[in-house]
Structure formats: structure tokens, C-alpha cells
Design a protein that fits this description.
The chain is an alpha/beta fold. It is built from six helices and nine strands; from the N terminus they run E-H-E-H-E-H-E-H-H-E-E-H-E-E-E. Helix 3 (67-80) runs parallel beside helix 5 (110-127). The chain is globular and about 50 Å long.
């Protein structure tokens, strides 16, 4: 992960995005860098992440905020820290207006806010005294025309320097005897100098 840059990990539900990000956090901590996790989905697995090597005592952790507060937190954290901050995930962000809606349909506001937010983060990363990397976890889907879609659209692709796509390979399950104990995950680079690189790894919960 490049410092002073934005990276995106995308994929379908439960394909290992958070696990990969946790490994990045653990490595950053081992190198003496700061680390933060914004748990928008309220699904942070404390015991699981600790087993992956994350030092929970030295992890800045926030959850239960609205989108505007998460965005403000990112800007402040980048300005005063050197390390890695993870937003998990874009799909779970809820704006203040949306959180106050009572059983009424509303137009999603987060996709419209993402471009401006990422533009400010890019500027903040370049101006900060310390060196940090911002990792965005995002869900993806294939649109009716066959095109890959992530929340925030093409604006996200414009601002990220590294885009790692994670895909569960259903034909390569990990087994112990006759029992399936995990899955093989293909991680491909969609953007940067290594955009055609692919690697397979095993995900065993």
C-alpha cells in the first residue's frame, strides 16, 4: 500500500476485503505506524482481527457515526498521524439526513458525497506532515450492461491509486478431508502499474 495515496479493496459480500485490510493494518503496526479502523458496518471481529496480528490496544477504532462524522474523522486523523486508516465500508455509510428519515424512501446521498470527500482526502494526504494511506472497502456489482459498478461510480476509480478486486473462486474450495473449511480468493490489481497482476490465496475463517 502506497503512503499518501488512496486504495480501494472491492468485491462481493464476504470475499475477504476486511481480512486483507486487517493484514495491512497488522503489518503497518509492526513497522511502528499508526492505525485506525472505521467500522461503519458494526461487524468488527475483535478476536478474529487479533488472531490476524492486529494490536487492538494501539488501534484507533470508531463506529456508530453518520457519514459526515466519519468523513471529518478521516481528515483529522490524516492530519495528525502517520499510518493506515480503513473505512469499512462505503456501502454502510448513512448520512445524517438518511438516519433521521422515518419509514420514507429517500434518494441515496452518499454516492453524491464520495467524489468531494475523496478529493479532499487526496489533498489532505499530500499536505499532511505525516505519511498515511487511506483504504476504502467497497462492495461491487455487475450492472445490467455487464459493467463493473462500485458505490461512488467512476469518481472512486479516478481518485484511487491502487484498486484490488477480490473474487471468491467457487470451483476452488479449500477442503480438509471431505469438509470445506475455506475458499480460494483471487486478488487482482485493477489500477496502477501492476494492474494485470493476479494472485490466489486461501481464506479460512
Amino acid at each position: 500500500i502506497l503512503l499518501r495515496r488512496i486504495a480501494q479493496f472491492s468485491g462481493r459480500y464476504s470475499c475477504g476485503k476486511s481480512t486483507l485490510a486487517a493484514y495491512v493494518i497488522a503489518e503497518a503496526q509492526q513497522r511502528g505506524l499508526d492505525a485506525a479502523w472505521l467500522d461503519c458496518e458494526n461487524r468488527f471481529g475483535f478476536d478474529y482481527f487479533e488472531k490476524l496480528g492486529v494490536n487492538l490496544d494501539k488501534l484507533d477504532y470508531e463506529h456508530g457515526l453518520v457519514a459526515e462524522d466519519y468523513f471529518a474523522y478521516v481528515h483529522k486523523w490524516i492530519a495528525k498521524n502517520s499510518g493506515v486508516i480503513v473505512l469499512d465500508s462505503v456501502a454502510a455509510l448513512l448520512t445524517k439526513n438518511e438516519s433521521e428519515e422515518e419509514d420514507r424512501p429517500s434518494i441515496p446521498e452518499v454516492p453524491r458525497m464520495i467524489p468531494t470527500f475523496l478529493k479532499k482526502v487526496t489533498n489532505g494526504l499530500s499536505l499532511a506532515k505525516g505519511e498515511s494511506a487511506f483504504i476504502v472497502l467497497n462492495h461491487e456489482k455487475i450492472d445490467f450492461d455487464g459493467a463493473l459498478k462500485v458505490i461512488g461510480g467512476r469518481s472512486v476509480e479516478h481518485f484511487v491509486t491502487q484498486w484490488l478486486r477480490l473474487r471468491r473462486m467457487t470451483t476452488k474450495t479449500v477442503k480438509k478431508g471431505a469438509n470445506q473449511i475455506g475458499d480460494t480468493i483471487e486478488i487482482s490489481m485493477k489500477k496502477d502499474a501492476r494492474q494485470f497482476d493476479k494472485v490466489e490465496t486461501e481464506l479460512i475463517p
